[in-house]
Amino acid sequence: VCAFKWRLGLGPDGGHCHDGKNPRRNHFGELGRGMGHRRAAVNIVERPFYGPTDWDYVKRLTGVLRVEDTCGLVFVDSDTNEIVAAGIVDNILRKSANISIAITKTMALKHGIAQRFLEYVFIDLDREYLCSFVGETNIKALRLNKKLGLKEFARYPEDYEAGADLILMRLARSDYLKRK
Q1: What is the CB-side half-sphere exposure of residue 27 using CA atoms within 13 A?
Q2: pTM
Q3: Do residues 120 and 112 touch, judged by C-beta distance below 8 A?
Q4: How far apart are CA 121 and CA 24, in angstroms?
């Protein structure tokens, strides 16, 4: 079951269009070229996380352990059937849930996958807070969490690895809705 489907390509203004209509043509009349590089259109579909087939992907990229209440969304390139990203939710409490995001195609972030995942946690699962544990040496994850609006909430000294803290980041639904 797909909640939505994107057709990603270049729009007439050089930006990305979500429906693939009006692809940009360069001065040679070629489609999909801009700024000296080629971007192929990609069809990304969302589906619910299914442990037996999706867990290896998530575990390989995040290292998180699957627990009884693990759920989430998986984003798949429908042309290749390859998973490009997954958002996992676990340790779901009365008001909050822990999240992990696994991404193999970073271009997917530019097209709303992360925002859709936040919507899933706050709206679909109706949580008031989402939390994310990130090692202070995991610069890419820290940067992504900050872009999504998460803020440092607590630190566990040297709990990630020797000399590196584990950082608990949190985002409130009220802050998410203000940014949206």
Answers
A1: 2
A2: 0.74
A3: no
A4: 35
Q: Do 22 and 13 meet the contact criterion of CB atoms below 8 Å apart?
A: no
C-alpha of 119 from chain center: 11
Which residue, among 175, 173, 13, has the nearest Cα to 95 in the 3D structure?
173
- Secondary structure percentages of the chain, helix, strand, coil, to 5: 25, 40, 35
Tokens of 119: 């919507």
Measured CA to CA, the distance from residue 36 to residue 46 in angstroms comes to 30
Residues ≥6 apart with Cβ < 8 Å to 14: 24, 34, 35
Each residue's pLDDT tens digit, 76-105? 998 899 999 999 999 889 999 999 999 998
Contact by Cβ (8 Å): 149, 176: yes
Query: In the 8-state DSSP scheme, what is residue 109?
Result: G
Which pair of tokens denotes residue 132?
A: 């994310």
pLDDT tens track for 35-65 = 334 455 668 899 999 989 999 999 999 888 8
